[in-house]
Write a structure and sequence with these properties.
The protein is mainly alpha-helical and 476 residues long. Among the domains are: 219 residues, no CATH class; 84 residues. It is built from 23 helices and 4 strands. A 4-stranded mixed β-sheet has the order 1-2-4-3, sandwiched between helices. Strand 3 and strand 4 form a beta hairpin. Helix 6 runs antiparallel to helix 7. It is flat and about 70 Å long. The two termini are 20 Å apart. The N terminus is likely disordered.
């Protein structure tokens, strides 16, 4: 039975326990799991989230935005010696969480609650610090004898259980990880360590260092309104006045650096808000903001209104609103994507393709534009053009599972069965499902339409995956 992923966060259970001493700041000698094992645990947990948690938000633009903020923080961190992946969970609670191996989840409620981009960055910096200091790995301790799937289940269970002690005990007992119980009282020390190191990351990345303290202080004050139903972030990241005072003192002694919000911060929040509730409710919300000039950023409010009108299938009005946004911010990639979606919704796939082609000329490295352009080509039935475009993209982004899925779609539409199964196999490999990938390659062998070279490539890849599967079975 899968434990539901509720109230995620990185504070490690039982916040009322007495704290034990941790190694000195920056000392990760307590991380007893190897970097390889940490990454594999994280990948296994992410596989579960992607496949079984309906709240996983697969939105290219919003994912690109949180990853851009995350990349800035990681790039400024001398201790981040691993890949990081930031992803979104559709959940209105204000929360974020980190898993072993560099996977950081962000609740949509956090993105909407942050009043500045630096506040959002402050939370992400805190989570990045949890990863660089190997906090969950140190929690798991000497559980290396457990299989990777079981360790991943423990991680997911611990994340879910922090708001429910009964679930916590079930996870510990069910996994046979009773030694974890003695380490659960690291909570407050882990949080203080993540505060200190996260503050350094935030400062080095060029954000307003006051953002971390201001967000946490506002969360603490909000507890008076919630009584026994505090925001998830407070349940999973126990706050103390000492921690908040320490953050504020650090901000006061640091050199002040103005960090204005990016236009992407405003557009991402507006896009998210426009997709909530019924379309007519979203239109009414943004329409009122625009009429009464109740917005911090006009472009964001009008972008939200255009998005809401597109949802309501008011395509003419949505297109008109996009033109106003263009006048305010210019041909921004997110704005051009919305313009293309509006054209697609109105049945003008050719027009959408041209909007996207022009946008790619200005922003060739913005991957969501590439996804949308390929989708427009596929909508028009131009699968050979789509495959040619994808062939170049795969060279640039060989670990992007979405690209292989798009390849598989166009190969299927073109009647190329071997290549269809081959592309699906790579998609499954990148999602961590080796058995499904091997099955697809076996189907490719039997497709009957491959030439000698294609079949040889399939057989070689199949051998590689079987070796990889055997190696992983040994490690488990």
């Amino acid at each position: 039975m899968r434990i539901p992923l509720v109230c995620l966060g990185l504070a490690l259970l039982v916040p009322q326990a007495n704290a034990q001493a941790l190694p000195e700041l920056g000392d990760t000698s307590g991380a007893l799991l190897s970097p390889y094992l940490e990454r594999k645990i994280g990948e296994q947990a992410m596989q579960e989230i992607r496949q079984r948690d309906q709240r996983f938000l697969d939105d290219p633009e919003l994912t690109e935005y949180v990853n851009e903020i995350g990349r800035r923080i990681v790039a400024a961190s001398p201790e981040a010696r691993q890949d990081f992946d930031f992803f979104l969970v559709r959940d209105n609670t204000i929360n974020a969480f980190a898993m072993p191996g560099g996977f950081v989840g962000v609740h949509t409620g956090l993105l909407l609650a942050a009043q500045t981009e630096s506040e959002l960055a402050g939370v992400l910096a805190h989570e990045v610090a949890h990863v660089t200091q190997h906090h969950i790995a140190r929690l798991l301790g000497k559980q290396e004898q457990m299989s990777i799937p079981m360790l991943a289940a423990v991680v997911l269970g611990l994340l879910a259980a922090r708001s429910n002690p009964d679930v916590a005990q079930a996870v510990i007992a069910g996994a046979g990880a009773t030694s974890i119980q003695s380490q659960l009282n690291y909570t407050r020390d882990f949080e203080r360590e993540a505060d200190r190191i996260g503050f350094q990351f935030l400062q080095q990345a060029g954000f307003d260092v006051g953002g971390m303290g201001s967000f946490f202080e506002r969360m603490q004050k909000s507890t008076r309104l919630y009584e026994n139903n505090a925001p998830a972030y407070l349940r999973t990241h126990p706050l103390t006045s000492e921690r908040i005072a320490d953050m504020q003192n650090r901000a006061q002694t640091a050199a002040y650096k103005q960090a204005p919000d990016s236009i992407e911060f405003s557009l991402a929040r507006a896009k998210l808000r426009a997709e909530q509730g019924l379309p007519r409710e979203a239109v009414a919300h943004f329409g009122e903001l625009v009429r009464e000039h109740r917005y911090a950023d006009e472009a964001g409010a009008r972008y939200g209104l255009a998005s809401a009108r597109a949802r309501a299938r008011e395509f003419s009005a949505a297109a008109s609103e996009v033109e106003t946004v263009r006048k305010l911010v210019g041909p921004h990639p997110m704005v051009e994507l919305l313009a293309a979606r509006i054209r697609l919704g109105a049945g003008d796939a050719a027009g959408a393709r041209e909007v996207l082609r022009a946008a790619l000329g200005r922003a060739p490295n913005y991957r969501p534009l590439h996804y949308a352009y390929v989708e427009a080509l596929q909508e028009l039935g131009q699968h050979q053009a789509a495959l040619a475009w994808l062939a170049e993209l795969v060279k640039s982004y060989p670990r992007d599972a979405r690209l292989y899925g798009m390849q598989a779609k166009s190969y299927a539409a073109s009647g190329k069965r071997l290549l269809h199964h081959q592309a699906l196999a790579e998609n499954y490999v990148l999602q961590g499902t080796l058995p499904a990938a091997i099955e697809q390659l076996q189907l490719a062998q039997k497709s009957g339409d491959g030439d000698f070279y294609q079949l040889s490539a399939v057989e070689a890849r199949l051998r590689d995956l079987r070796v990889l599967q055997a190696e992983e079975a040994k490690r488990r």
